[in-house]
Amino acid sequence: MDYATNPADGSRIAYRSTGQGTPIVLLHGTALSQAIWRGFGYLSALGRTHRVITLDLRGHGRSDKPHASTSYGIDLFVGDVIAVLDALDVPAAHVVGYSLGARVALAVAASHPDRVISLSSVAGAPGTGLGVFDRVFFDGAIAALELGGMAGFLQAWERASGHPVDSATRMAFDANDAAALAAYMREAERLPRVTDAELAALPMPVLLLAGTRDRERLTAMEHLRAQLPQAEWHVLDGATHADTPRHPQTLPLLEAFVDRVDEGRAFA
Length: 268
Hints:
Blueprint: E1 2-5, E2 12-18, E3 23-27, H1 35-39, H2 42-46, E4 51-55, H3 74-87, E5 93-98, H4 100-111, E6 116-122, H5 132-136, H6 141-161, H7 167-174, H8 178-188, H9 196-200, E7 206-211, H10 215-227, E8 232-236, H11 250-266
Parallel strand pairs: 3-4, 3-5, 5-6, 6-7, 7-8
Antiparallel strand pairs: 1-2, 2-4
Helix pairs in contact: 3-4, 6-8
């Protein structure tokens, strides 16, 4: 594991770089870590032909986990990604994001288009808005984290859903710092969206993926499509928000998209 430092606030961001070829940056979702990409097969598949860069977003994994909500502004998340690229002397990369990672990827593309070869949004949206974590988890999710820590959050989630949290999800959530995760969630609901004008101005090829059972992100994809009529998009049958990155179509669609972009660049 290597670390880059965001010069804006000194936060240390854990990352790994493996393989050779055109770089691809993979950005995970809320309460997860870069470990998902190995578990879902992305590292082995993409690493055959590309340099794969994964990182733990601030507040997650082995990266720094500040407890102040002001430490989770979108500009800081963007700065973390740029700091990793700079540490690796990577001028530009394909950027792939899932959920929170897609929100960050969109912001990176809008603010640093020269650093993004292509952009792939997996169950992503240009913003979140109030109440998003209540809708994803259960009513009062952030307060449960703040008052009961991760154990209290998981217990409340099980009560609300009526069934136990599966062992893999429990393990992923237990690895988090509850105070840092709550601080991120509080700030995420207040963050400004990537604007329609910024979206329409994106110059790079864009791939949009969302599942039929992820209504909120499906609606967000329709909005993104309206601003990016040139984007490639796919609706994944039967996929929930949690299922989308491991849906059997997702990785093959991503590989094919990135390969087409690389081929186009080679003949440009």
